[in-house]
Specification:
By secondary structure, this protein is mainly beta. The chain is 14% helix and 51% strand. It is globular, with a radius of gyration of 22 Å.
Length: 285
């Protein structure tokens, strides 16, 4: 079915140190070989360490498979060889959506899919986790804290579209209060715009190079730090709204919303387990 939804730009770059790599070669029921799994990349950004999860799903005969094979054969993870010997790398990919229905309802979050991998040897190249995504803005609202007070930040609801009309909502997206007024002046609901995001995802912890304790320098690895899990997209810049018929029209936006509705309706909740009970004779089943 041709629903007229063209693919939008969706590019992610993550630079950091490879921490773990759990990727396997598998064979589908149709006999097609593919690679599946995840890797974790440690990113040190502005004094905070993030463990960025990278999803791997690549057909063995695809354009991306050769590069992935190099990663599997040559790259070293810090959980195996230690951080000093681990490989620093650039992961290029795209933002995707993970979602399923659990007993508690719909669960979903954004996840980076890795496509290309490049070894980084220049120590001057800083870690980063960023995205440039053509986004259709669906709503702009104020962010409130746990007590209901306004924080000054903006919550932005929007989506992008990957290949084959895969509509990807961009969840937990905010604009810092320092840019809130400028963002409201630049964009409105319904705009199609190239936005730039910082990806704050995974387990995070504040890190320091060293701590002075009664005159002695203590390595950061020996300093206890509180770990938190975070999954946010922070918009820090953007281009002018797309015009001249190249933007997503109200009709296309409605089609995208219908695709999302159909996708959610197609998800099925897990069936409850039947308790193993005796029914009057025989053994529990």
């Amino acid at each position: 079915m041709n629903n007229g939804l063209e693919q939008l730009n969706n590019h992610v770059e993550v630079i950091g140190t490879l921490k773990t790599m759990n990727v396997e070669s598998k064979t589908s029921m149709k006999g097609n070989e593919y690679y599946s799994g995840k890797m974790i990349v440690d990113c040190n950004i502005n004094g905070v360490a993030y463990e960025q999860v990278i999803k791997i799903m690549t057909m063995a005969n695809s354009y991306y498979a050769k590069g992935l094979q190099t990663v599997l054969n040559e790259y070293k993870a810090s959980d195996v060889v230690g951080k000093d010997e681990a490989t620093r790398l650039l992961v290029s990919g795209q933002m995707e959506l993970v979602e399923y229905i659990s007993v508690g309802g719909l669960r979903h979050w954004n996840e980076v899919k890795g496509l290309n991998f490049t070894r980084i040897t220049d120590e001057k190249v800083n870690d980063k986790s960023v995205a440039q995504i053509m986004t259709v803005i669906d709503d702009i609202s104020e962010v409130k804290d746990e007590k209901g007070a306004l924080t000054g930040n903006l919550k932005v609801e929007g989506f992008t579209v990957n290949w084959n009309s895969d509509v990807v909502p961009l969840l937990d997206t905010e604009v810092d209060k320092s840019l809130a007024d400028s963002f409201r002046k630049a964009y409105k609901t319904g705009d199609t715009v190239d936005l730039y995001y910082n990806i704050l995802s995974g387990t995070s912890r504040v890190i320091k190079d060293e701590v002075l304790y009664f005159g002695e320098k203590i390595p950061a690895s020996e300093v206890a730090s509180k770990e938190n899990y975070i999954n946010k997209l922070i918009i820090y810049s953007g281009g002018a709204p797309i015009k001249n018929g190249l933007e997503y029209s109200p009709e296309k936006i409605e089609i995208a919303k219908q695709i999302r509705k159909n996708k959610i309706n197609s998800l099925s909740a897990p069936k409850p387990k039947i308790p193993a009970t005796v029914t009057g004779f025989g053994s529990p089943f």
